[in-house]
Design goal:
It is built from 21 helices and 17 strands. Helix 13 links the parallel strand 12 and strand 13.
């Protein structure tokens, strides 16, 4: 019989204890809620067999408020590194079976440790969050731990991709960490985020609401705009993370992954020639344009339920990763409002951080008029979008499909904001405003004095549209680079991406700009 070193046996025993987290009973309770454990989540996220755990033996520090029975190996978070599609990532997964996953000084230490390693090695950092918030027993130590994480979230922003996956509660100040990151994925009916919970709200304001209605995935996907993607279950959420990362480089120095494709789609592009109606007031679906221009099944829409008059998402065109920004003419005629401005701004800046070219489809009659919009700061919010496009140094390609009126024309990556290639379809209408509005200002007296004002207004509008609201006037003055058939869009974008892949446009030296937040 071979000799077993007792020290090795002890190590194995302690390792097994660490893997149990809060114990079998609490693991069973976690499973009964339809939730996986932290280690199961890490296993499902990463490539099989690639996870290497760090600091599994850490426990909370002794102090006057901590008793021995509250000590657990790992202290409520699993941290380490592994691979996704063969690329290294760092990950931390809060363990709800250990004191509800609450954040302590040592849990913060572990999280900050993998964040620092991710930065030093230029790799993404992914947080799997399931926590009751700060560990009350540790008081200000826990709050200091949050501050350490928040500072890193801010300083590492735009250097490495940071992703948070909501797999349970994320309440109080804890919600600020995901809010500072590039991507938030939530699980329907299982995860929620809020600063003050239902009980506090009831006590302070008298309002009665449950956790799901206050901060569930439906709320943050459709109303607040805090979350970016949602999933039916944990596995789908983790698959979304893997898919999202497939479009991004590992850091801000690298270029996005290029994925070779084996088939083109010229046949379906022919339908683009008839997609824009002859009547400029009749809507069409911009999503159909995007699906026909992008590589098959490659479009991943971000925040699809919030500010639906704007579209943002990641896709591939001829294998190149691109960020797509567009208006949706079938929702509010594609008008730009406050939420749409914020949605597009944040996405443009994320793409610029990680060297992802921007492809913009323009069909907007302008900014949404109204007292509420003006009083809520549409000028300030619209200026964010203008700032983002002006600041972006990645390759920028714009396609004007129909309406590009006034401020909407300017802010949507117009040529003189530094856009590299600007194309227009024959249906493009590039002007200060629509023909009807223009003639009512320019020919107001003539229309009023006419025997048939309505017919005269219609006639003048048609003349104005033919003379000014077309792409040829803009092309003759150099405001667009080419007028193309819609079915040529995919090939034109691919050619532009190929020509611009080595673009170098350094920003002027400065500490940072002062975006109008």
């Amino acid at each position: 019989m071979s000799f077993e070193d007792p020290r090795i046996l002890e190590l194995r025993e302690i390792r097994e204890k660490a893997k149990q987290g809060g114990g079998k009973d609490r693991i069973n309770k976690q499973h009964a809620k339809g939730k996986n454990t932290s280690r199961e989540r890490v296993r499902d996220l990463l490539d099989p067999g690639t996870f290497n755990e760090l600091e599994p033996f850490i426990t909370s520090h002794n102090d006057e408020s901590t008793i021995d029975t509250e000590k657990f190996l790992g202290d409520g978070v699993v941290t380490g590194y592994g691979q996704i599609d063969g690329r290294t990532v760092y990950v931390y997964a809060q363990d709800f079976t250990v004191l509800g996953g609450t954040l302590s000084e040592m849990q913060s230490h572990k999280i900050c440790r993998v964040m620092d390693l991710a930065l030093r090695n230029g790799t993404p950092c992914i947080g799997l969050l399931d926590s009751g918030g700060a560990r009350i027993q540790e008081g200000v130590k826990a709050l200091g731990g949050y501050a350490e994480i928040f500072r890193r979230n801010a300083q590492f922003s735009g250097v490495i991709p940071q992703i948070s996956v909501m797999l349970g509660p994320c309440a109080g100040g804890a919600a600020y960490s995901p809010a500072l990151q590039d991507m938030i994925v939530m699980v329907e009916k299982k995860s929620f985020m809020f600063l003050t919970g239902p009980e506090v709200i009831k006590a302070v304001t008298g309002e009665v609401i449950d956790a799901e209605s206050l901060g569930g995935s439906d709320v943050h996907m459709a109303i607040s705009g805090v979350a970016h993607l949602s999933a039916h279950d944990e596995q789908q959420a983790l698959n979304l993370v893997r898919r999202f990362l497939s479009y991004l480089p590992s850091n801000n120095i690298e270029n996005p992954p290029f994925k070779s494709i084996y088939e083109d789609t010229p046949a379906k592009e022919n339908t683009l020639n008839s997609i824009v109606p002859m009547d400029p007031s009749e809507p069409y679906v911009m999503h159909q344009v995007i699906e026909q221009v992008a590589d098959k099944d490659s479009f991943l829409e971000i925040q699809p339920a919030w500010a639906r008059n704007a579209i943002v998402g990641l896709a591939r065109i001829g294998g190149y990763s691109v960020g797509i920004v567009a208006q949706e003419p079938s929702v509010l005629a594609g008008v730009i409002d406050i939420d749409a401005s914020d949605k597009m701004t944040r996405f443009v800046r994320m793409c610029d951080c990680f060297n992802i070219p921007l492809v913009t489809f323009v069909d907007s009659p302008g900014f949404l008029p109204g007292i509420a919009q003006e009083h809520s700061g549409i000028i300030r919010h619209g200026a964010k979008l203008l700032y983002a496009y002006s600041e972006a140094t990645v390759p920028k390609i714009t396609i004007i499909t129909r309406k590009a009126y006034g401020g909407a024309y300017v802010v949507m990556s117009s040529k003189y904001l530094g856009t590299d290639m600007t194309f227009a379809w024959p249906s493009a209408e590039i002007a200060v405003m629509g023909a009807e509005g223009a003639v009512n200002i320019l020919y107001k007296k003539q229309i009023e004095e006419s025997d048939k004002p309505a017919e005269e207004s219609k006639r003048l509008a048609e003349e104005y549209r033919k003379k000014f609201n077309n792409p040829y006037m803009a092309a003759s003055n150099g405001y667009i680079d080419d007028i193309i058939e819609p079915r040529e869009t995919r090939s034109k974008i691919f050619a532009a991406l190929s020509a611009l892949k080595d673009k170098y446009a350094p920003a002027p030296p400065r500490k940072h700009g002062n975006i109008p937040v």
